[in-house]
Design brief:
Helix content is 26%, strand content 13%. The chain is an alpha+beta fold. A 3-stranded mixed beta sheet has the order 1-2-3.
Protein backbone atom coordinates (compact mmCIF):
# COMPACT_ATOMS: atom_id res chain seq x y z
CA UNK A 1 0.00 0.00 0.00
CA UNK A 2 2.82 2.38 0.80
CA UNK A 3 4.48 1.69 -2.56
CA UNK A 4 1.17 2.64 -4.20
CA UNK A 5 1.44 6.08 -2.62
CA UNK A 6 -0.72 5.65 0.47
CA UNK A 7 0.98 7.42 3.37
CA UNK A 8 -1.94 6.94 5.79
CA UNK A 9 -0.90 3.53 7.09
CA UNK A 10 -1.52 2.68 10.73
CA UNK A 11 -1.59 -0.60 12.57
CA UNK A 12 -2.30 -1.88 16.03
CA UNK A 13 -1.45 -4.88 18.13
CA UNK A 14 -4.19 -6.37 20.28
CA UNK A 15 -2.89 -7.55 23.63
CA UNK A 16 -6.04 -8.37 25.64
CA UNK A 17 -5.79 -11.74 27.41
CA UNK A 18 -8.24 -11.46 30.29
CA UNK A 19 -10.26 -14.56 29.44
CA UNK A 20 -11.16 -16.89 32.33
CA UNK A 21 -8.55 -19.56 33.10
CA UNK A 22 -7.22 -21.60 31.39
CA UNK A 23 -8.06 -19.69 28.21
CA UNK A 24 -6.04 -16.62 29.26
CA UNK A 25 -2.85 -18.64 28.81
CA UNK A 26 -4.07 -21.13 26.20
CA UNK A 27 -5.37 -18.52 23.75
CA UNK A 28 -4.27 -15.11 25.00
CA UNK A 29 -4.94 -12.46 22.38
CA UNK A 30 -5.91 -14.95 19.66
CA UNK A 31 -6.43 -14.14 15.99
CA UNK A 32 -9.70 -12.24 15.44
CA UNK A 33 -10.30 -11.83 19.20
CA UNK A 34 -10.26 -8.08 18.56
CA UNK A 35 -13.37 -8.14 16.35
CA UNK A 36 -15.93 -8.13 19.19
CA UNK A 37 -14.06 -5.14 20.64
CA UNK A 38 -14.20 -3.28 17.34
CA UNK A 39 -17.88 -4.03 16.73
CA UNK A 40 -19.11 -4.21 20.33
CA UNK A 41 -20.51 -7.72 19.81
CA UNK A 42 -19.61 -9.32 23.12
CA UNK A 43 -22.84 -11.32 23.32
CA UNK A 44 -22.45 -13.29 20.08
CA UNK A 45 -19.89 -15.28 18.16
CA UNK A 46 -17.03 -17.65 18.84
CA UNK A 47 -15.44 -15.75 21.73
CA UNK A 48 -18.41 -15.28 24.06
CA UNK A 49 -16.80 -17.67 26.58
CA UNK A 50 -14.16 -15.00 27.21
CA UNK A 51 -16.49 -12.16 28.11
CA UNK A 52 -17.41 -12.47 31.76
CA UNK A 53 -18.56 -10.05 34.43
CA UNK A 54 -15.08 -9.85 35.98
CA UNK A 55 -13.43 -8.44 32.83
CA UNK A 56 -16.31 -6.21 31.77
CA UNK A 57 -15.01 -2.81 33.01
CA UNK A 58 -11.64 -3.06 31.26
CA UNK A 59 -13.11 -4.78 28.22
CA UNK A 60 -15.69 -2.06 27.63
CA UNK A 61 -13.08 0.68 28.07
CA UNK A 62 -10.83 -1.08 25.56
CA UNK A 63 -13.68 -1.43 23.09
CA UNK A 64 -14.37 2.31 23.37
CA UNK A 65 -10.70 3.17 22.72
CA UNK A 66 -10.68 0.96 19.63
CA UNK A 67 -14.00 2.10 18.17
CA UNK A 68 -13.11 5.76 18.73
CA UNK A 69 -9.83 5.17 16.85
CA UNK A 70 -11.67 3.64 13.91
CA UNK A 71 -14.24 6.43 13.97
CA UNK A 72 -11.46 9.04 13.93
CA UNK A 73 -9.70 7.24 11.08
CA UNK A 74 -12.87 7.15 8.98
CA UNK A 75 -13.46 10.86 9.56
CA UNK A 76 -9.92 12.22 9.31
CA UNK A 77 -7.60 9.57 7.86
CA UNK A 78 -5.86 9.37 11.26
CA UNK A 79 -6.83 7.09 14.18
CA UNK A 80 -5.68 9.63 16.75
CA UNK A 81 -8.22 10.87 19.33
CA UNK A 82 -8.06 12.38 22.81
CA UNK A 83 -8.96 9.18 24.61
CA UNK A 84 -5.77 7.45 23.48
CA UNK A 85 -3.62 9.63 25.68
CA UNK A 86 -0.63 8.99 23.39
CA UNK A 87 0.45 9.76 19.84
CA UNK A 88 -0.24 7.01 17.27
CA UNK A 89 2.46 7.32 14.62
CA UNK A 90 2.20 6.08 11.07
CA UNK A 91 3.63 2.78 9.89
CA UNK A 92 6.06 1.30 10.87
CA UNK A 93 5.05 2.54 14.34
CA UNK A 94 2.05 0.94 16.01
CA UNK A 95 -0.33 1.16 18.93
CA UNK A 96 -0.82 -1.65 21.44
CA UNK A 97 -4.38 -1.95 22.75
CA UNK A 98 -4.63 -3.84 26.03
CA UNK A 99 -6.62 -3.97 29.26
CA UNK A 100 -6.74 -5.47 32.69
CA UNK A 101 -10.05 -6.52 34.20
CA UNK A 102 -10.55 -2.95 35.44
CA UNK A 103 -8.97 -0.55 32.95
CA UNK A 104 -7.73 -0.20 29.38
CA UNK A 105 -4.79 1.55 27.78
CA UNK A 106 -3.18 2.19 24.44
CA UNK A 107 0.61 2.30 24.26
CA UNK A 108 2.61 3.43 21.24
CA UNK A 109 5.30 1.10 19.91
CA UNK A 110 8.30 2.12 17.86
CA UNK A 111 9.18 0.37 14.61
CA UNK A 112 11.73 -1.77 16.50
CA UNK A 113 9.01 -3.04 18.87
CA UNK A 114 10.05 -1.01 21.91
CA UNK A 115 7.59 1.08 23.87
CA UNK A 116 7.63 4.77 23.16
CA UNK A 117 6.90 7.63 25.55
Amino acid sequence: MREAGNEHLYYYRFGWDQEPAPFDTVYGAAHAMDLPFVFGTFDEGLFTFAFIHRNEPGRLQLSKLMTESIRAFVRTGRPQHRGLGAHWGRWPHSMVFDATDRSADARPRAADGRSRG
